[in-house]
Amino acid sequence: MPASPSLPVSPCTFLVRFVKVDRYGLVIPLDHAPPIFCLSITPSDPVRHFRWTHEPQVVSTNAVVRVCIYSPPVHKSSTPLEPEAHLQHYTAHTRSELPLTSPMTVEALESVAVVAVPFPAQGHLNQLLHLSLLLASRGLPVHYAAPPPHVRQARERVHGWDPGALSSIEFHDLNVPEYDSPAPDPAAPSPFPNHLMPMFEAFTAAARAPLGALLARLSTTYRRVAVVFDRLNAFAATEAARLANGEAFGLQCVAMSYNIGWLDPGHRLLRDHDLQFLPVDACMSKEFVDFVLRMELDEQVAPVAGVVMNTCRVLEGEFIDVVAASPQFQGQRLFGVGPLNPLLDADARKPGQARHECLEWLDTQPPASVLYVSFGTTSCFRAEQIAELAAALKGSNQRFIWVLRDADRADIFADSGENRHAKFLSEFTKETEGTGMVITGWAPQLEILAHGATAAFMSHCGWNSTMESLSHGKPVLAWPMHSDQPWDSELLCKYLKAGLLVRPWEKHGETIPAEAIQKVIEEAMLSDSDSGMAVRERAKELGKALRASVADGGSSRKDLDDFIGYITR
């Protein structure tokens, strides 16, 4: 679009001399004086403007218009636009006759705002914040909206970006009533974090109103408001649909292939690759399954323009094609922009920037010699399983960094009480001094995975961790706990062939003995292991391919460009 003049505009201030209002709803100007604006009116949109420079031509009404400002009287009296408008003469005079209550330049009115609405769990907060930072780095105004504790959580835990990057985003608190924030129960019969359900329910019930108010306010300032919502937050799509200039896009925070298993566990593509999709009620609590189904119903009702995926064709190309052809996604654009996490260089150092002590320790270790062990933010181990894992790490004689912490509370800043691992750690750290390091707080996972001393990652296989590991060329020792993690493990070990299975899902209720864990550690870490060598090489290949996908000419870069182009069209 050509550059527009910096002319102030407001409702009822355009005086346009015209021949007629044609059947397309367009105001057709009369004069050939210096062209400024043509106006367009529709029943669902605000006053719109476009600067014309040619005549005659056929103009797509999707391209004709740009939001000017919200004006209810205009909405009430307007008529629909047809797909095309045949214009012969379309220049106009315009002048302001009334005082402007909110003067704006045309440039400001033509901007597009992105509103990110994350689901309040760490892996979801993190992915949408990464996407927000990517979009902000491309010059888009980005607004990140979540309950106050989760805004703080996302800000404090983000890593891999320059310290000043967060200043490019405007954060908004979605104030919701207080909710229970119980401690996780390591002895619970299921590893699913059901202690978070009160917060999930409170959030989806109460965040709608403050989000709607935020969107309504932004819609008067920007010509389009693109709401990017975690697909577990389908209510955000409903709120976006209330805006004349709103548009909703879901963010897929799990593997795209997961959709195939969810919709059709016996799908041909899964059978062809000998992939097993477990029944969802085997991996999630009944309460959460019911919650997800309610969100799906909401998403089916509200219009969704597309889905942004934290994946790419390198990993899931044939799965993406199947999903794109499925009835559930008809009419939606799919943008595979992953990996969303920053890709760090193994030897990158920023002078003057504080580093976690574990990174200083990694600096002193030989290349590809350290096993990183972490099971995410929503899982707990029973004491007996912790003891077996500790014995395996000690017995393997391999260097390691072990993040030993319980699952997050709903509010991570609430008092967590006494550390139940304190007594165990006092003994274990003495026994493994010089060989390993145990972290009980927050660990800089991206930097650990990017470090040249790190060889492999023993993981719960959450999709966020899976993408971070593969994008840095590190194989995964798969120990799935709940939710989509068993599927991610299946994808990693059988399809991508970049992982080794520590615990088969059929043994998820058992305590895995140290001998079995140690065997997989040695298989992954020792140089004389053929299977270990194979997954290490495969992970390196995927790491290079993922970096290429987000570089110029890569599929993820193209899809990100397409997404930005689409929301700013």
Automatic annotation (TrEMBL):
It is an enzyme of class 2 (transferase). It catalyses: cis-zeatin + UDP-alpha-D-glucose = O-beta-D-glucosyl-cis-zeatin + UDP + H(+). Its EC number is 2.4.1.-. One of its GO terms (molecular function) is cis-zeatin O-beta-D-glucosyltransferase activity. SUPFAM superfamilies: UDP-Glycosyltransferase/glycogen phosphorylase. Keywords: Glycosyltransferase, Transferase. The keyword Nuclease does not apply. GO terms for biological process: regulation of cytokinin-activated signaling pathway. Residues 110-342 form the Glycosyltransferase N-terminal domain. Belongs to the UDP-glycosyltransferase family. Utilizes UDP-glucose as the sugar donor and catalyzes the formation of O-beta-D-glucosyl-cis-zeatin from cis-zeatin. May regulate active versus storage forms of cytokinins and could have an impact on seed growth. This is Glycosyltransferase.
